Amino acid sequence: MTTAVSMPDLRVTPRRVIRAEWIKFWSLRSSIITLGVGVLFLVGIGLLATSTFDSGGPTIGDGPGGPGGGPVGPVEISLAGTNFAQLAFGTLGVLFMASEYATGMIRSSLAAVPKRLPVLWAKIAVFAAVVFVVSLAATVIAFTAGQAILGDSGASWSDPGVTRAVIGSAVTVTGAGLLGLGLGALLRSTPAAISSLFGLMFLLSGVAALLLPDSWGDVVEFLPTNAANSFTAVSAESGALAPAAGLAVFAAYLLAILVAAAWRLKRSDA
Question: Which residues contact 238 (CB under 8 A, 6 or more apart)?
Answer without folding.
Answer: none
